[in-house]
Amino acid sequence: MLFSFSLKSSILLIFFFHGIVFSTLLLVKGLQTENKSNLLLSLFILLCAFYIAPFMFGYAGWYSKQHYRDFLFYVPFQQLFLLPPVLYFYIKTLLDKSFQFSTKDYIHFLPATIYLIYSFIIFIVDKVILNEYYFYSDGKDKDFSFWYQVAGLFSLVFYLIRSLRTYNSYRIMTYNSVSFAESVMFKWAKRFLTAFLMLIIIRILFFMINPEWDEFGKKFWYYVSFSVLFYYVSISGYTNSILSATSFKDFTINPNADLKLEADNISETEFINNTKEEKNKVQDLDMWKEKIETLMCNDKMYENPQLVISDISSKLGTHSKKVSQVINQGFNMNFNDFINHYRITYFLQKIQGGEHNIQTFLSIAFECGFNSKSTFNRAFKRATSLNPKEYIEKYYKK
Questions:
Q1: What residue ranges define each of the domains in the chain, with the CATH number in brackets?
Q2: Where do the HTH araC/xylS-type domain residues begin and end (predicted)?
Q3: Which of 222-236, 280-294, 304-318 has the lowest mean pLDDT?
Q4: What is the distance between the alpha carbons of residues 277 and 284, in angstroms, rounded to a whole number?
Q5: Dihedrals φ, ψ of 58, to 5°?
């Protein structure tokens, strides 16, 4: 088998080999645990390995040999319409373990399907019907056509925007639903989206430097940069524990909700009725605020490190959306910050009682309901503008 081991082909071969290995590992792990996000990440890494394959084989001399050249010509290694939606649905399944593909979701894969059909038609015409290069009469690989590369770049940008919106929706939902939001706000998802953004920046940069994508000598550093990125994603994606304690299915987010009273074009009677309704809403809000505050003070539910909003709503005999609305509007906080406020207040009460002299800050924090040192430190500094040590030195210095 022909493979010329040069510096360039060997470097890309190392990344290609590791991509295949990590893709296989994630595939096995995904099948064993029935984890859709691992399966999609496995597919993403495999597509990344295939993406660098033409250049790796090109540096190894494949484009100069007939049968090898035909293989590179007619196999669509660079799936520029498939990579972006795979990235997008990876983010969705990563953040929401209950996500299920619907019929409309498969529309996202239609451009990739059309390109596969297009590639198959080219193969049939050139190699079966005409038995000569017709579509490939110019001797250039169709994967490097300018229109295809540009369309692939736009697809990446489009799906990055969708992925960021998905992450932001998840972030809002989480902070309004659980008291341990920072524990389930995946740092890995952030890093993955950052790598996604860097990928786009690199593509745009190299497009500006050299738009001729079939010029091998000028594209090597781009493919090395791309390889480093997907190698990082491979290692981090496999080693990180990707678990979510919440699901989009459990909560309803309505970003278009408008609570403002529209006063235009209404009659005097309607205005009076609306005024009464608003007054009743204020009274209702005050009533529920008092119920929630009483529950927090008497039952100390904030001591539960796994507290979720449904625990509160069950105690009060109402639904989670009502509790979330009261906390948002009545206390001007999300659920996560609201519970942490009580935890910090309880922590400060313990400090006033001198408990910091007999046990560590972290032990006290755990007793108050925090489940990690980093979450406690952030909440404490947000509430007092000081870290615990600075607070003690300032107010309880002996």
A1: 7-250 (1.20.1070), 268-395 (1.10.10.60)
A2: 290-394
A3: 280-294
A4: 10
A5: -65, -45
